[in-house]
Amino acid sequence: MLPPEDPPDGGWGWLVVLAGFLANSLTFGILRSLGVLFEDLVGAFQATTAQVSWVTAIALATQQFASPLGTAASTRYGARPVVMLGGLLSSLGIFGASFSTSLFQLYLSLGFLTGLGWALAFAPTMGTLSRYFSTRRSLAMGLALTGNGLTSFALSPLLRLVADHLAWRGTLLATSALTLHLLPGGALLRPLALRGDPPKLTSIFDVGLLAQRGFGAFALGTALLAAGYFTPYVHLDAYGRALGIEPYSAAFVVSLAALADAVARLLTGCVADRRLLPPVYLLVAFNSLVGATLLFFPAASSYASLLLLAVLYGASAGSFATVAFAVLPELVGISRVVNATGLCMMSMSVGGLLGPPLSGFLRDQTGDFTASFLVGGAFVLCASLVFLALPSPSSGCRGAQQDEMPSIVGHPKTPCPMPPRRHLEI
User: How many angstroms separate the CA atoms of 409 and 391, rounded?
Assistant: First the structure.
């Protein structure tokens, strides 16, 4: 048993940030970058856009739906062995996908097995990172989350280059080897016992969090946004080609969006810790900007306009991710943040499973991506409406566990013995 302590806000925590950087790079970073192989897979399997989109959808949905399994296992056995096992499974999944001879095999390997490995690796890492920081949590999250954008920026053109020389099978083999770096990342997750942690686990899944109004609204909102949030990274390369842009330039559009994403995550992490605005306001604002940008993608008629929209999307999506991961510990308390991360990822699986296939189906039916972007933007904007139900600055009471940390809106609040009853609860 480790002696309880306060979040170190540094020290070994910076190595945990490195682990978070690797987890973001080798899960969502790779998932975004594989979009450059989209047209290759359509041609190789003589499939429709919607059929190939199911590969990404299954991987994303499995990663998110199985995240509570990863966080529960890390609560029981520790994050280190769980994350390392996840890295091994995801690498094996991508390795097996390189030998696929049918879409069904691709669904099982690159979709299910890889997604399961990512579930064991991502949520436990990010939950552990939240426990290592308090006053500098947004900065730490921003640094870790830049792995997503920087990897997408570097890998999109690189995978296109490798695919031109080694085809899509060779590209997946190289990606499989790269994913093995999740193992040393998991080894960096040293256990940490904090003051305020419950002396005994009552439930390793902690599903009671879903009954809390604040977390319930947050989970519902993330489920809605997931239906449109990933649309550009799945279809942006193909959309660029449909506009007559040559393949390497189309891949660069994805890379530029990823670079804007990474820079925005870092800058937002620095600014959010200053509490200039309540985090819940930032959450709604950045999410609304993501949805509005998606609605404008069909208006792109040139390479320059597509680049501009890609930068706006990347910046707003990256800013939202940083604020979202910083808000979550303040909604549920630091002692429950690991399980809350897993449950939140599980709620996103609903939208993640719906979004890419629906986007591909709309493209097949209409002949272009206009409806795909419009529907995706509508889902994201609906999520903004749900986020408005989060605890507001005018609330006079803290949520459960809020006594452990600053208020979600950045102002001290006095606890109330009985919270006011609301007519609408989520």
Answer: 8
